[in-house]
Amino acid sequence: MSEQYLSLCKHYDTQNINMMNIEMISKKTQQKTEETNKKQKRWGKKFEDKRNWKEYNEGLVRRGELYLSLDFLESWDNELDKMNKGKKGAPFAYPEQFVNYMAFVYSIFHIPYRQMEGYLRKLSDLVSRDIAADYTTLFKRIAKMNMTLPETLSEKGEDVIIAMDSSGVKVTNRGEWMREKWKVYRGWIKAHIAVDIKNKETLAIEITDETVSDSEKFDDLINQTEHNIEGKKIERVLGDGGYDDKDCFNTLDKKKIESGIKTRINASTRSRGSPYRAKCVREKQKLGGYKGWRDKYEYGKRWIAEAIFSAVKRIFGETVRATSIDGMFREAKMKFMCYNILLKWV
C-alpha cells in the first residue's frame, strides 16, 4: 500500500470526522434553539429586571441594624408613665416597646429565655441603664404581648389582591427515627396566611393544629384582612384547590370580592349551594379551561404566599420550641409578625 494512498485515506477520514463534528454541533444548537422556543412559548417574553439592585441591597444590609436597634431607650420613661397611669397593683418595670424588641431577639436568634437574661445584663453595661429583666419576667410579658400585625405597607385607597395558603410548622426538631423507634407522635401545627401580592406582607394569620382544613379558616382570614387594611378593599383572592368550597365562594359573593380560587377539573356547573361558584366554573370553561382562566386572574402570583412561608422558615426556623399549645401558636404567629417588620427595612 503506497504512502500516497495512505495519505489520501487519512485526508478523507479527517474530513468525515470534521463533518460529523459539524453535524453534532448543528444538532446541539438546534436542540438549544428548540428548548428556548419552548420556554418562551410557555413563559412568554423574557423577564425584564427593573429592580434597583443598589437600593435593594442597601435595604437588606440595613436589616442588620434592626437586630441591635435600641430605639426603645429613647421613649423608655414616657412609655412607662403612660402604662402605669391609673394602674392597680405593681407598676410595670419594662415598656411594651422593649418587650417587642426582646420577642424579636427571641425569634431571630433562637435564644432561650435564661440566655436572654444574660444578654440583657451585658447590654445594660453598654447602654448605661439597667434593662436586665429576669427570664421569668420576659417569658410572662412576651406571653401576654399583643399579637397584632404591624401597620400595612399598602397605599391608602388602593385595592388589594391577596393570596391565601397554609403550611405546616414542626413542633419538635427530633427526627423520624425517634418517632418510629418510640412510636411518639407529636403532630404539627398549621399557619394559614393571607398575603398582599404587591408588597409581599402578611395581612392576616391564623394558627391551628393539623386537623383544621384551609377552607375552615377562609372567613377568619378575610375578616382579619379587611380589619388590617381599613379604608381599602379586597379586590381578588387567589387560592388553590383547598379553598374550593361553596362556603368560601359564598363569602366572596357576599363581600363582592373577585374569585381567583382554582376549582376542580370536574366541578359542577350547577349551583349546588353556591351560585357564584357555578358561575366561576362556567366562566372557566368559556375561557378554554385552566390556562385561559389562569392568565385572566393572574393565578400564578399565588406563589408569593409560598415564598413568604419559605422566607419565614429560612430566617426564623421551621420549628417552634414552646411545649404548650398556646405557646406554640404564639411563637409561630410571632415569626410572621417579625418578618413583616423586616419588610419595612427594605
Structural description of this entry:
- This protein has helices at 3-43, 53-66, 76-84, 96-109, 113-127, 135-143, 176-182, 218-228, 246-254, 275-286, 290-297, 303-316, 325-343; strands spanning 160-170, 188-196, 202-209, 234-239, 258-261.
- It is of the alpha/beta class.
- It has two domains: 53-143, no CATH class; 160-321, 2-Layer Sandwich (Nucleotidyltransferase, domain 5).
- Helix 9 (246-254) links the parallel strand 4 (234-239) and strand 5.
- Helix 4 packs across helix 13 (325-343) and helix 5 crosses helix 6 (135-143).
- The radius of gyration is 29 Å and the shape is globular.
- The N and C termini lie far apart (79 Å).
The tally of strands reads 5
Strand content: 5-15%
The helix count comes to: 13
Elements, N to C (H/E): HHHHHHEHEEHEHEHHHH
Radius of gyration: 29 Å
Alpha-beta classification? alpha/beta
Query: Looking across the biggest beta sheet, what order are the strands in?
Result: 3-2-1-4-5
The share of residues in helices is 40-55%
- Terminal CA distance reads 79 Å
The structural domain count equals 2
CATH class of the largest domain: Alpha Beta
Please state the oligomeric state of the protein chains shown.
single chain
The CATH level-2 architecture of the largest domain is identified as 2-Layer Sandwich
Low-confidence stretches: none
Overall average pLDDT:
85
Fill in the CATH topology of the largest domain: Nucleotidyltransferase, domain 5
Biggest beta sheet attributes:
5 strands, mixed
Overall shape: globular
